[in-house]
Amino acid sequence: MTIALFRIDPRDSVATTLRDMKTGETALGVTLSADVPKGHKVAMTPVTAGEPVLKFGFPIGRATQAIAPGEHVHTHNVRTALEGSGSYRYAPSHEPAAAFHGPGFLGYRRADGRVGTRNEIWVIPTVGCVGRTAQKIAERAARLHEGQIDGVHAFAHPFGCSQLGDDLDGTRAILTALANHPNAGGVLIVGLGCESNQMNRMLEGITHPNIRTLGAQMASDEVEEGLALVEALIEGAQATRTPVPLSELVLGVKCGGSDGFSGLTANPLVGRMSDAVTAAGGTAILTEIPEIFGAEQLLMARAENQAVFGGIVELVNGFKRYFTDHGEAVSE
Questions:
Q1: Are 292 and 319 within 8 A, CB to CB?
Q2: So what's the pLDDT on residue 102?
Q3: What is the pLDDT, as a whole number, of residue 97?
Q4: How many domains does one find in the chain?
Q5: 154 is in which domain, residue-wise?
Q6: Does the first or last residue of the chain, that is N or C, have fewer Cβ atoms within 10 Å of its Cβ?
């Protein structure tokens, strides 16, 4: 018999349906008073109007009316508890994970000491106007050199033209960081010639030892010239994987499209992976800050010290202010 309801924390006032459930079905000691779709919430305990609704042992909203056990808990009877910039108290409650002593991984040690998990050729356009050119070069090169390198990839984007000031600086900083990434064994920078994001300014911040450049407006056949440059990059990018401790790994995590089961499956798995990597001395990078709205206190409780806690508060409140300053609700 399959499990129909899953209660994450014994303190939770709701459980998640693991399949479509019908009125009158009983599971975990409650009887449903309505049909509830898969991935939705069912009340496990009585919740009074205005009382927090708990999931993961944490408030996820407030009841807008009294909710009896077995009722469907959704937007018709719960409202968000998210607010604009908030006041938070440092209350550490997380015990660090035990040091990880398992195996490391096979990586590519770079000249600057960093380690890549892949050895690829990256084609980076300075401006969106040559994004398709970069893609054509990468697609053809990937077919021509299959098996000689881990991959050939283009990073097309719509930026680099008619940008000024901080806007342009931001684009340049991101593209420069990509060009210096340890997963790139070689980098081809493709420019147009008339863009705001001039190639020479980008090159000032690039330290990668295996780099080539291509100016589309100066080339007779930019794709063919690009293919020749990629071939040279591949020759200079040959490398061998060597054993590396987990402390050298940098793990980036990002929302990949949440549903009603993400918090039961993928999210805890990724969290445990992050705990293992950081316990070994590695690094986990959390992006997409608005995705943590509503759960930020759980992360703040894991802050190593008050200074780290203060940094998280400043970051989260800064994002929230950006929403409210532009007339947007932080829950949207």
A1: no
A2: 74
A3: 66
A4: 3
A5: 105-242
A6: N
